[in-house]
Amino acid sequence: MSSSSPVRVVSRRTVKPPQRPRERISLTPWYTSMLSANYIQKGLLFARPPLSTVRLLDHLEAALAGALAAYYPVAGRFVTEQHRDGHGAVVGCSVSVDCGGQGVEIVHAVADGVAVADVVPPDADVPRVVQSFFPLSDAVCCDGHELPLFAVQVTELADGVFLGFACNHAFTDGTGFWNFINAWAEIARASLAPPEAPLALTSLPPLFERWSPDGGAAAPAVLPCANPSVLIERLWPPPMRERMLQFSEETLAALKERARQELLAAGDTAGAAAVTRFQALSSLMWRAFTRARRLPPDEETMCRLAINNRGRLRPPLPAEYFGKSAYAISTEAVRASELLARGHGWAAAAVGRAVAAHTDADIRARVAAWTAKPVVYELRYDPSAVLMGNSPRFDMYGCDFGWGKALAARSGRANKGDGKAALYPGRDGGIDVEVVMLPEHMEALEKDEELWAAVSPDAAPAAKV
Hints:
Distance between the termini: 24 Å
Mean pLDDT: 95
Structural class: alpha+beta
Shape: globular
Low-confidence stretches: none
Number of strands: 17
Radius of gyration: 22 Å
């Protein structure tokens, strides 16, 4: 495949939900703080569907309209309301979703000369052409005032199709995003089921009521400006290299056991009893990234982790809560030399302590602190830290639109920087890790013996499901 293989946009269509009474849903602190973030960009690679192009697009459009009947705010747009004091002076603003049925977008594109094998080459970087499979690549969340809150690009390949999704990250998080995609896929799958074997729809209807600390009606988050656009940064990192690394169930179990044994040897019985596969994998990536960057011995580093708030709140949020309910937490800072000297087990336990500390009280304290001093987060990557993002718990491979399980999951160029490791469920078990680093750091990482001893060899993409 040539690196200049073009992706041609052929057509666009707008999909709207059924008409319903118009309403607005206020953005609360979890949402408003993310207005400078890029859209979520995640996608699925499929074998060629047994449908013509026209029928495929019509099939996806009809099912998407069906999903929007329940997920109607996804088809809305952001609106800003100014807040004034008793003298009429503007003292702040808040953002809401105007659920007016403005619509989402389906983009049809063709990738000339690009095959499935070109998208997922074994033991190689993720090809840059994959970034062209996603819509809204230059958008930040505040652009949801004019742009759709959700769009999908259907890119035809020589022997397959790639569905590239883009969703406003100030509107929902990864949990809500994949719940929506699964609901859409379920409707699509059911529509192709034979009459003698109909499929029942099992997705729970989404809950749009916003969480508030006192359990009452959620107040909108108010920013100290007349328009949120003055707080928005549009930051794009320099060119990065990306690789998708596979870790088998056996490897993850071995990493966990190694951490457990090291902690027992150090006398940390509590840490040994609590260690998880996630902590052990995070430890492996944190220490490998630190070595690859060749950080000075006295420079401090930490491991940052994206974490879901839903089950940690008291009472917990219901599974069907649609919206943003996630934070980034951090381990304690440690000097690079100490991180490497203390070993795999200590780093795994440090991740565990950070997760354990993220309680209902911690979440509420964060909301209170933001409300006292509202801010739109600057999404800058710490050159000495590691960010573990995404989640292997997201049901990506459950998104069968009627012609079988996806061959692979990939992402666009949004929300990436040096030192990010995004976790995906493995197609056939285990965990896949999308590694993003500066070219010089990736070159060093590829020579890290401890990391590569744990990485499973790439398998060729399946020709059939």
